[in-house]
User: What shape does this take?
Amino acid sequence: MTIIHLSSSLGGGGAEQMVLQLAKKSTPHIKTLVFSVSKDNTLEAQFKAQNIECHFLNVTSFKNGTLIQGVKKLHEIINSLEDVVFHSHQYHGFLIGLLYNLFYKKKPIVFTLHSSTIESASRRLILFLTKPFRKVDIIFSSNAQKWFLKKGKIIPNGVDFDQLSIQKTREQEITKPFVFLFLGRLSDEKNPLYMVTAANQLLRNGITSFIFDVVGEGNQKIELLRLISSEGLENHFNILGFKSNIKPYLEASNCLILPSKWEGMPMVIIEAAAAKLPIIATPVGSIPDFLNNENAYVSEIEEFHNAMVTCIQDYKKALLKTEVLYSEIKSKYNIDNVYQTHLKLYKCVV
Assistant: This one.
């Protein structure tokens, strides 16, 4: 069997990180190739460090000649391979797999959308009409089932718990500025601009000793920087950019925040859980299926700042929540178990 991961990009998002985790597990035992639809190569070095073969199709638009050239390049590379299964990730990864099946040899397609929301009505319709071309759609929880997807196989995302484990015990009493960690793409769905609102709300509550460590890149970075400057909040923000090693930031921070507008199943939540880092998140996507107010703080965006205040004021309780979450998800969301479930699915469809 040959596993072909078709990813929209090799950017630094959670979907791409999951592709990396799955490819790392399969590469030593099964021929595995990763194809990026776009030129985005943020994670290329990490794939190469694991001896994972990756290629870029360099599709710049689905309305020009680069699309056809990309599908041709895919065919040239995999044409001689046998027992191929496509695992298409995100919308554009699926379209490449679909076009390959239409133009060349038919390959079984396993599809993971990695999100609970598609804003484009046309994309939702295309996914609905092309359901017969996909063998299985993977969803992260029962709540992630959508009308435009096939009846989904539930497989959660996973991480290496041992690798992300923090050895030192987090201090229950905060004697330095409280560090909120934002870890993810600086784009609309992640709602990074909300951090400026949250900072002002904390200040109005009389809380002045706090910092936002912002780890990630995206198209809202410039606007975020502009708002921070216009509000005079520079002393409360560290804009750190993309980091390939997130463990030091999980260790140094006091709380992870996800003020997202929509999500699939964020990898960063599982990463934070593995590091026993308190979490505040909005109840979007599959988040409510494994986060609740017993193991984290789940809050609508209108009350999000209140959860942040509560976390600061009773940090001992916040740390107790992390112990509950860790014990609940360590087995189910460990990458070894998640990969084995994927592997069984690949073998069933090939």
